[in-house]
Design goal:
50% helix; alpha+beta; globular; 211 residues
Length: 211
């Protein structure tokens, strides 16, 4: 028998272009399944702890990925990111910010994720900058001082790293990925971007498998 309130594990990163396109799909699924499905956002760490600027070849690959994600999702992208001479693409701070929100306002994580995506991809903001992160979360009623106090603790650094490790142990190789939480371990629902109808079909099939 499927559980009364299944939990979907959405593995993502605020600075992942395909996740930017896919988060609206997850939000619509959650709305359609309101009261019947819970969504837990997990940070996968696309490029955590990067310190060196992106090489030109990596920039080119990234730009191609952004264009493909834009064509598929029809969302706005700001490409001024690629005009910067030295770009350090470190996604850890944005992931840590999302975990900070999960501690302070767990019900808002998916909405803050959407806002982080938009800040980076549509508005061209540097969401590895703590002040920018503060500006993104402020409209959600999250106090700046409280946010920074949690964001900068050793504990949240540790929890972020542990979540990256857990995602790796789950076998996640692609962002975004979606799993159904299960007592015997997460069940893969979707690897990579897919449309809402496809995602819902995969979820229904997974729920029919004996729990």
């Amino acid at each position: 028998m499927p559980p009364d309130n299944p939990v979907l594990l959405y593995v993502t990163d605020p600075m992942c272009a395909w996740c930017y396109g896919f988060t609206p799909v997850i939000r619509r699924l959650k709305a359609l399944w309101s009261g019947r499905l819970s969504v837990q956002v997990m940070v996968g760490g696309l490029r955590p702890y990067a310190q060196e600027p992106l090489a030109s070849t990596d920039k080119d690959k990234l730009a191609v990925s952004w264009h493909r994600a834009q064509r598929k999702s029809m969302l706005p992208f700001d490409y001024s990111f690629f005009l910067q001479k030295e770009t350090v693409y470190d996604t850890e701070p944005a992931c840590r910010a999302l975990l900070t929100v999960r501690h302070l306002r767990p019900g808002l994580v998916l909405e803050v994720l959407r806002a982080l995506h938009s800040a980076f991809y549509a508005d061209g903001l540097d969401i590895s900058d703590p002040q920018v992160l503060v500006d993104v979360v402020r409209p959600f009623g999250i106090d700046e001082n409280l946010f920074l106090a949690v964001f900068e603790t050793e504990e949240i650094y540790r929890q972020t790293q542990e979540e990256f490790s857990r995602v790796e142990q789950m076998g996640v190789t692609t962002l975004p990925s979606v799993y159904l939480d299960h007592p015997n371990g997460p069940r893969l629902i979707s690897r990579g971007f897919c449309e809402l109808d496809d995602l819902e079909d995969r979820l229904l099939q997974a729920l029919q498998i004996p729990y």
